[in-house]
Specification:
Elements: E1 8-15, H1 20-33, E2 40-47, E3 59-60, H2 61-69, H3 73-90, E4 101-102, H4 106-117, H5 121-133, H6 142-150, H7 156-164, H8 166-181, E5 189-192, E6 196-199, H9 204-221
Parallel strand pairs: 1-2
Antiparallel strand pairs: 1-5, 3-4, 5-6
């Protein structure tokens, strides 16, 4: 598509760092974007806490899934194996089991927002996904978050300042409220050019068709 070279596609990915479908959705989006090598993409990870009321000590993952979705142990394990298989196909390691824990992600979203303001967000987002799913780290622990940030685009001082910044926290809450207000209830949700919304970790073919439609509309207006 000839206009791809002169078009910027804005993508807001509403996501959470403890959501396996979010990292799957991100990788599928990258596959879809390979069809448009000349397309400039501005991708921003936007905050959405799946478990805003999660206590500081977190919760056993199986217990959490059973409470939230009513799943039994056999179903949880079957789904976990399916997720591992999906991850392998996309280069993602899901090293979770029945003993894993899920954590609150408010502090992680504060870090991601500051990284976005500094133009360094994507490497940090990838590192947070890996820390939780592959390394089983507590992504609500400030010390762990500072360590991760310091290796992925932020200084330790920048990271600690972000975690301590109450105004930044208010911005995160406001954005989360805005997304819920417009009907976002599940992640990932992709919002293209502030106009077109796609919910779920869709197949790359589906995402590619959405992008094609957006570029076609851009052409017709051009």
């Amino acid at each position: 598509m000839t206009t791809a070279a002169m078009t910027t596609l804005k993508i807001d990915m509403v996501s959470d760092v403890v959501c396996p479908w979010c990292i799957i959705g991100y990788q599928r989006l990258q596959q879809a974007l390979k069809q448009y090598p000349d397309l400039k993409v501005e991708l921003t990870f936007q905050p959405f806490e799946l478990n805003p009321n999660m206590p500081p000590e977190g919760q056993n993952i199986n217990e959490h899934i059973a409470e939230k979705y009513g799943s039994d142990e056999a179903t949880i394990e079957h789904n976990r194996q399916q997720m591992r298989s999906l991850g392998m196909d996309l280069g993602i390691t899901f090293d979770t089991d029945a003993g894993s824990r899920i954590w609150n992600t408010f502090m992680a979203h504060k870090l991601l927002m500051r990284a976005e303001q500094l133009g360094r967000q994507t490497p940090l987002a990838m590192a947070l996904f890996e820390a939780y799913f592959s390394e089983r780290k507590n992504v609500s622990d400030p010390e762990i978050l500072v360590d991760i940030a310091a290796k992925n685009g932020l200084s330790r001082e920048e990271a600690q300042t972000a975690l301590d910044d109450e105004a930044l926290g208010q911005q995160v809450r406001a954005l989360e409220d805005d997304y819920r207000r417009v009907g976002v209830s599940a992640v990932p949700t992709f919002i293209f050019n502030d106009m077109y919304s796609v919910s779920g970790a869709q197949d790359p073919v589906v995402l590619g068709k959405v992008i094609a439609e957006i570029l076609d509309k851009n052409d017709s207006r051009g």
